Amino acid sequence: MRVKVTRNYQVTIPVEVREALGIREGDYVELELRDGYAVLKPLKRRWTTVKLGRDLKVEDIEEIADRAFSP
Mean pLDDT over residues 4-26, rounded? Predict the structure, then answer.
């Protein structure tokens, strides 16, 4: 599959690849160099939402951070 590099060194990921990898707008991807090839991997993070106006203890914040950053 051939894609063009823009003057800002950007490329568009073709729809077939985006769908196969489950990449959507706003997602992050990891680009790795392996044996002279670029390998693109989607980064999946679990996002945690906190309701505004809620009183949070330090323990609550630590638990939210642990859930958000655990693999």
Answer: 93
